[in-house]
Amino acid sequence: MNSVHAIDAAKTPSIEDTRNASLAEPSHALPAQSDELPGIRVPGASEKTVKRKQGLSKDALCNLGWFVLAWLIIVALWEICAATGLLNPHILPPPSETLPYLFSGSASVGFGVQKSSLFESSLITMARIFGGLLLGILLAMVVSILVIEVRVVRRLVMPIVQTLAPVAPVAWIPFAIAIVGVGVPAAIFVVVMAIFSSVTISAVAAFDGVPQEYIKVAQTLGTSRQRLWRHVLLPAAAPSILTMLRMSLFGAWMAVLAGEMAGINSGLGYLVITGQQMFNMKLVMVGVLTIGLLGFAMDRLMLWMQGHIIWWQRNG
């Protein structure tokens, strides 16, 4: 009997042994706590960021693939219709004739020192578009801020802006030639007048649409008017404003092409209208395709800039 009690005593740990063991070994009853402060680093955040970037790259490749496929289908149908006689190749020359003409260097207009190639015409048109866009957007933003800040300016200026908004870009060409003459200034003037009213109206609507709760909270915290614009109004209205600026790019293209076709004798619009007058449809098709590709590239550029400027939407 004494031996049995001795064996049980040997198997049963004492209170002191149990306490020492609990201090020596970590407890597995609760998960280990992280030493990182909450909000500083979220476990798995880097993995989510990598997955998001991988998803974006896959989406970009997928969109590029669909873009290429769509144009391959159009080119194939265009070539088949021209070969079978469904399309008149003299009016709509097929890609097998248009592409060699594009790379032959024959796509040019004018004579002597006034001769301009397709590349030079493209540079001229894009310079006019960017110049008109920058000036028109700058003026529109200044006016829209004044409209928000000064009630008298809203009552005096907005009726005029709303009246000028429906005027087509072509209607400004005679005024442009009479005021600033022919050439780059006239084209920039037409672009500015074409986008100024619409950009101003859209910017004012975006600023008016900022929730009043944001403004009241900022004012309660004693935010100055300058900081209110920089940290509340502009960030809150940025998505709408940038979308509106992207749409104004197409208005700028239409305005500058209309001006170049109607009296500003240079640029891609002038190249296309000259090709039509000379019945050089290959030149017309090359000009139209160049306009489309450049417009698409500029739109992608603005979309990329929009995604980086309003980064909180991209990462949200």
CATH class call of one domain: Mainly Alpha
Helix percentage = over 70%
State the strand order across the main sheet. 1-2
What would you give as the CATH superfamily of one domain?
MetI-like
- The radius of gyration over CA amounts to 33 Å
**Distance between termini?**
74 Å
CATH architecture of one domain: Orthogonal Bundle
Low-confidence runs: 1-16, 18-45
CATH topological fold name of one domain: MetI-like fold
What does this entry look like structurally?
The chain has a two-stranded antiparallel sheet with strand order 1-2. The chain is 75% helix and 1% strand. The relative contact order is 0.09. Helix 5 packs antiparallel against helix 6 and helix 10 runs parallel beside helix 11. It is globular and about 70 Å long. It starts with a helix and ends with a helix. The chain has a domain of 187 residues: MetI-like fold, CATH 1.10.3720. The chain has 316 residues and is mainly alpha-helical.
Topology:
Blueprint: H1 2-11, H2 15-24, H3 45-84, H4 95-103, E1 108-109, E2 116-117, H5 118-149, H6 151-164, H7 173-180, H8 184-208, H9 212-220, H10 225-262, H11 268-277, H12 281-309, H13 311-314
Antiparallel strand pairs: 1-2
Helix pairs in contact: 4-12, 5-6, 5-8, 5-10, 5-11, 6-8, 7-8, 8-10, 10-11, 10-12, 11-12
